[in-house]
Amino acid sequence: xxxxxQDHTGSRIARLRRExxxxxxxxxxxxxxxxSTLTKTEQGVIPASPYxxxxxxxxxxxxxxxxxxxxxxxxxxxxxxDVLIRPIREALDVYDLGPDPEIRPRRQEExxxxxEGLCAAVRAGxxxxxxxxxxxxxxxxxxxxxxxxxxxxxxxxxxxxxxSYDVAAKLGYADLAQLSLARLDxxxxxxxxxxxxxxxxxxxxxxxxxxxxxxxxxxxVDMGLSTLAQAEETRERGIVTGQLHLGAAVMAGRxxxxxxxxxxxxxxxxIAAETGESVTVHWxxxxxxxxxxxxxxxxxxxxxxGRAVKEANRTHIPADWPNSRTSHHHAExxxxxxxxxxxxxxxxxxxxxxxxxxxxxKYHPTVRDTYAGLEAAHRxxxxxxxxxxxxxxxxxx
Length: 397
What we know:
The protein is built from 22 helices and no strands. It is an all-alpha fold. Among the domains are: 71-192, no CATH class; 194-321, Serine Threonine Protein Phosphatase 5, Tetratricopeptide repeat, CATH 1.25.40.
């Protein structure tokens, strides 16, 4: 057997619990979670749900990333991704220093095209390409924005901050993701963009969603909707508004508020019917497909895994949909399939997640925990299963 399962999320929960001298029952009482679910999660029999991880993190007073084991340093080092993080941090630090006299930035049109290209790379699952290029572009765009002081310059810089956020979030650097968001907000204010401000609140709400802080996340959603109401009524505003409702739906689902989740999904569906598929508008991939994918996510968050699998079977993912979103969807479906005992289907979904966006799937906590759950099932699986574990990388030391 591959060693990855020896350090899954459940085993980390058990280790942190013992360090705090808590029994399983005591932790369940503190976190208000099911005893049966906790024990099976610690054993690796079932993957840790985001809801359980968030509740345990709050009870143990640690970050969610600590429980997920992120960032996965050994794998990052093997893929030579770890060395790309420091330059991004350094590029984010010079945001307010004005033009760098040693940098001669290119024309605004060229910088904008480069920024759009990085957004496209992230959506295609090419995280290493984006991580390797974004730091230098941020420094160049920072000088350009301070020199020209135009709305277009600040918007380009904001786009690059968005890419640094995407890279950091996907690789598990939560602190860097939050710093990137702060810079995004700073640039959005200088561009006087209410739509970009609304998107900032959406992305910030997602950070609280991951930490299990649903009340704060919902307040940010409400603030984002209020900010968007100040913008001119355009298709762009509708798309970002619809995406905020999708984020709010998952937030409500994870908080086990089915009625509120349904309300947000229905409103997003209404907006999507007006906007149509809008993959490249702020690269949110908003549209009817994303609404259907989020319905699957919400059902899983509500622990209705059987319904989530059925809904996924009825959901068609277009061939030209962003690889990053496709991969994330298959990872979530795999988790639901494992919960319902469809082991072969779950592994097939993990393979599809890897095929769509291998760099993203490799660093996705749900992919790793679902793999560990399949391995713990002690069922004969094909040789490709073990090679999948080798691809994910060694267990952290």
